[in-house]
Amino acid sequence: MAAQNEDGWTALHLASRNGHMDLARMLVERGADVSAQRDDGWTALHLASRSGHVDLARMLVEYGADESAQTKNGWTALRLAQKNGQSPSVEHRDSPFQQPPPPRKNLRRRTW
Questions:
Q1: Are 54 and 77 in contact (CB under 8 A)?
Q2: What per-residue string of b and e applies to 55-64 under the rule 16 or more CB within 10 Å gives b?
Q3: DSSP-assigned states of every residue in 41-95
Q4: CATH of the domain at 38
């Protein structure tokens, strides 16, 4: 199920870009490659992330999509989500893009 159109898009790319969760799930369950990349490096996860389809992106990650995959221009799914104002906030702990919290500063307790 790796057929691509003349622009390099697979059915999973298109379903992910347009937020069609049920279709994307069916394609993956029937063997669609969650890591398929166009010549420019774009994956279904990049497209879902850029378009704000966080639930779909989460599903792709659960099926093995590589969160660290980069486009030819160096964009990861997380960076695309952030650039387009779709980045999950800290409260969204179930996000596929959850990053570890920044290190805490060494706060010493004052003793008087």
A1: no
A2: ebbbbbbebe
A3: ---HHHHHHHTT-HHHHHHHHHTT--TT---TT---HHHHHHHTT----TT-TT-
A4: 1.25.40.20
Give the pLDDT of residue 82.
Answer: 83
pLDDT per residue of the chain (112 residues) written in tens, 0 to 9: 567 767 778 999 999 999 999 999 999 999 999 999 988 999 999 999 998 898 999 999 999 999 999 999 999 998 888 887 765 533 344 555 554 444 555 555 555 5
Question: Domain residues for 49?
Answer: 11-83
CA distance linking residue 83 with residue 110, whole number of Å: 41
Q: Is residue 73 part of a domain?
A: yes
What is the C-alpha separation between 104 and 7, in angstroms, rounded? 46
Is position 1 within any domain?
Answer: no
| Total-model pTM | 0.74
Domain count, the chain: 1
Torsion over CA: 89, 90, 96, 102 (sign): positive
